[in-house]
Fold these 2 entries.
Entry 1:
Amino acid sequence: MTTHPSSIEQHPDLAEMRTRFERATSTPIAQGVEALALLTGLYLAASPWIVGFNGLTTLAVSNLIVGVAYALCMGGFRSAYEQTHAMAYCAVAIGAWTIIAPWVVSGAVDTTRTIVNNVIVGGVAVLLGLAMTAVAAGRRERA
């Protein structure tokens, strides 16, 4: 007769998976990507006031919301990697939105200042999201 663990928390596969995810987030590369992503999200949220286009309300609000969402999305990897590693694809989508936002949001907000800011920050956001997916994929292949 087979005995079953009293809860799913004690299942051997779950324990092994948690150990693997802990190893993935404890590498210097993963920690560096996460730190840069958190800074990118915070900069994106504050960029209308840093760069000086806070008068363009629609883009300023978009950058604020998207920046906070990006920081929360990418900042959650360290504390709960096993639940959030798939959200790196969401971070890539947020970066892509940041790039196209000056042309998509309502109003005439596609100035040189807004385009340069959003294209650079969006490109960095996309690259960091792809880097985090690569870290996760590399860990899965080695395991």
Entry 2:
Amino acid sequence: MEKSKVMTHEKFGEKDFQTIIGNLLRYGVWISLSVAFIGGIVYLLHHGNDIEDYSVFKENDRNIFEVISSVVNGVISGSGEFLIFFGIILLFLTPVFRVLLSLFSFLIEKDYLYVVITLIVILIIITSISFGFSH
């Protein structure tokens, strides 16, 4: 028998999503670690000899939009402190993106029970971020 030369179209499957999710987690952690490490080096180069006054507590009572705006401006200006903070934000967002990818995976697979569960998890994440910054 002769093999057919017609290519079969494979569907984008669960194995593909697992590979993408695994790579997202792996590279997300490495990228966030690298950004925070570079920020640490930049911070030490500019503030390595500074003495920090730990007797005074500096409370930052700002909302999430002010924090994101200041982080973006700080990263653009090359501030080491904000590069470290940006690395931490990237580390936090890595599993959040994993949950969002899982949502799309469950939608494609038409597994609606897990779609609902994933939406509840996303709602919990959004609620905790909102109330965490607006205490």
